[in-house]
Write a structure and sequence with these properties.
Elements lengths: L5 E3 L9 E3 L1 H10 L7 E5 L4 E10 L4 E10 L6 E7 L6 H10 L2 E7 L13 H14 L6 E4 L3 H5 L6 E5 L16 E6 L7 H9 L3 E3 L8 H18 L2
Parallel strand pairs: 1-3, 6-7, 6-10, 7-8, 9-10, 9-11
Antiparallel strand pairs: 2-5, 3-4, 4-5
Helix pairs in contact: 2-3, 2-6
């Protein structure tokens, strides 16, 4: 069976009559040149997905007939990634890869060497993770959080194994760490962790982890580290 086109439907709109919102309808009609009778996939980002048949098409609306709807249980294994605030140029890439690697939560926090910090979640970020979810067909989308300090981060998530990728760690290579099923990863900014930040994380029970001898950019560290953990958790399910 050919791969179906995927569309996002906000969880509050999963009720009859089912229909795509204006933006998704425009994409179906004008970009994909979709036709009446076509079967598409919908998902809500909270584990619900379904197959729907296109029942009717108007200028700004696509009316749908549900064929099957599935609510997936929460995954047993979860990855939370806490990224020090970084410049915007690679943020879309980072958000996209977090979706593909099934991160449960994306947390932004202001490190000492971070650029000026934002206090609000942008609509463009949400669109990016939705588009990534369509591409990889992950029914769960990560939640995005913005925290005001490292202290706020460390005072929660007690049930998670706590790691931080540290450029000065020489012994604990990630591939040699015993991993658990729920993992919180802290990644520092381009300039690295300040000494007081790495010391504080260790005091709070975080294990410093090495990703090898190379000095890595933030997005490279994120991709290598989370990619390895993703494969480990996939193999343990």
């Amino acid at each position: 069976m050919a791969r179906l086109n995927s569309f996002y439907l906000n969880k509050k709109n999963w009720q009859s009559p089912y229909q795509l919102d204006e933006d998704e309808s425009k994409h179906f009609i004008k970009v994909l040149r979709g036709k009446k009778g076509e079967v598409i996939r919908l998902f809500d980002g909270y584990g619900k997905e379904g197959l729907f048949k296109v029942q009717d098409i108007s200028k700004k609306r696509v009316l749908l007939e549900p064929l099957s709807i599935t609510q997936h249980p929460e995954p047993e294994n979860k990855i939370k990634v806490a990224l020090a605030w970084q410049r915007a140029k690679n943020r879309d890439f980072i958000l996209e890869k977090c979706v593909e690697l099934k991160c449960w939560e994306i947390i932004f926090w202001p490190a000492k060497y971070s650029p000026p910090f934002t206090q609000e979640i942008k609509e463009s970020w949400l669109k990016k993770i939705i588009n990534a979810g369509k591409q990889c067909q992950n029914p769960w989308l990560p939640q995005i959080k913005i925290l005001n300090s490292l202290e706020e981060l460390t005072n929660s998530n007690s049930e998670y194994q706590k790691l931080f990728f540290w450029e000065k760690e020489e012994k604990n290579l990630l591939t040699k760490i015993s991993l658990e099923k729920n993992i919180l990863i802290v990644i520092g900014p381009e300039g690295g962790f300040a000494e007081q930040e790495s010391t504080y994380l260790k005091q709070k029970g975080f294990t410093s982890v090495s990703l090898g001898s190379s000095t890595l950019r933030l997005e490279t560290a994120m991709l290598i580290g989370i990619g390895y953990i993703y494969l480990f958790l996939e193999s343990s399910t």
